[in-house]
Specification:
TIM Barrel, alpha/beta, single chain, globular, six-stranded parallel sheet
């Protein structure tokens, strides 16, 4: 991504940073009487910290929670080291999300070892173990980055055979500084065109095999629900990132825009998490419609798309006050889903 600051970060959190992180989350949960705190161990690759450090992090975070708050801990992994880590994750009760971009040829185009070999075999082996009766209670879902060069229905069918309880399809992290091929110009919609056949198949399945977050989120918003997925709807920011050196930042998605895009100037060592609310970059997330470009505010879909993922709006010289580089794709997908569920709602009404 445009921001390569991870290269200067410690490879893992020190004992001191783990302690401060636990303390600040405890303070925040207690001050706001939170009933539920969700913590995601992310990367890089979080399983690289090893058994001892992973146990220390999870144990310390749980021990620091107020008795009134439920602490859910999950881990997002590339799956390469997962199979041998499952007994420990089961012992620690850590849920697992796995990144998988499709069958071998599609996955291996992008996810390679340093020697150039693809990682698909190791990931698929890990997923077979995770979806087994012994460990499937830990399985949180699959994450697939869309590659429009792959076949959408074949990709969905392959992912579905792992019996994931949920899956999500992510638009590649691009912006107007580095637009995705085929989007952002001439109203072409290759990403919507890729997703729509999957939606049609998934929506018509009875019973549905799995949840697909992007489709569920759009349907919920169209029907007047609240935003649940970052990058759709106009809900406030709900997530902070704590880097391995203790820096508090915004979503990693912003690293695709420019160096320092997620910077807040705060450190976990310095004080309460609430201080992040006063960071100008975070405040911009919290004001809903006011943060959108004039083009977006005039669009009838802005309550649903929310202007798109914040990072995808970036344009050099103009910042984030722009429509998403995937604007045409989002518009086509939302309108298609709206028409499909609108037809079904009309049928139900006639039936009554």
């Amino acid at each position: 991504m445009a921001d390569q600051s991870w290269r200067q970060q410690p490879l893992k959190m020190s004992d001191e940073i783990i302690e401060y992180t636990s303390l600040r989350i405890h303070e925040h949960a207690r001050q706001h009487n939170l009933a539920h705190v969700r913590i995601i161990l992310h990367g890089g690759e979080p399983l690289l910290v090893g058994r001892a450090t992973l146990t220390q992090i999870v144990t310390r975070l749980r021990a620091a929670m107020p008795r009134t708050a439920v602490c859910s801990i999950s881990l997002q992994t590339n799956g390469v080291l997962l199979a041998k880590s499952l007994p420990l994750l089961n012992e620690l009760n850590v849920q697992v999300g796995v990144s998988l971009d499709g069958a071998a040829a599609d996955h291996n185009r992008h996810r390679k070892y340093r020697n150039g070999n693809g990682s698909h075999f190791a990931v698929a082996s890990s997923l077979s173990a995770l979806s087994s009766q012994t460990y499937n209670h830990l399985f949180r879902g699959l994450l697939c980055v869309i590659d429009i060069n792959s076949d959408p229905l074949s990709t969905y069918s392959y992912l579905a055979h792992f019996d994931a309880p949920a899956m999500d399809f992510l638009l590649p992290h691009r912006s107007w500084a580095d637009p995705p091929h085929g989007s952002g110009a001439n109203n072409e919609t290759p990403y919507a065109d890729w997703l729509i056949p999957i939606f049609d198949l998934w929506y018509s399945q009875e019973p549905q095999q799995t949840r697909i977050r992007i489709f569920e989120a759009i349907m919920d918003l169209l029907l007047g629900g609240q935003p649940q997925v970052e990058g759709l709807g106009l809900g406030p920011l709900r997530t902070l990132v704590i880097e391995t050196d203790g820096r508090i930042e915004q979503s990693d998605f912003l690293k695709s825009a420019y160096k320092g895009a997620g910077f807040t100037g705060l450190r976990i060592q310095d004080g309460a998490l609430d201080a992040a609310l006063y960071s100008p970059s975070i405040a911009q997330h919290q004001v809903g419609t006011l943060a959108l470009s004039s083009t977006c505010r005039l669009c009838p879909l802005h309550q649903v798309c929310g202007g798109g993922q914040f990072a995808h709006r970036y344009r050099p010289g103009l910042g984030f006050s722009n429509p998403s580089v995937y604007c045409a794709d989002l518009s086509r997908l939302i309108r298609y889903i709206s028409a499909r569920i609108g037809t079904d709602i009309a049928k139900l009404r006639r039936g009554h």
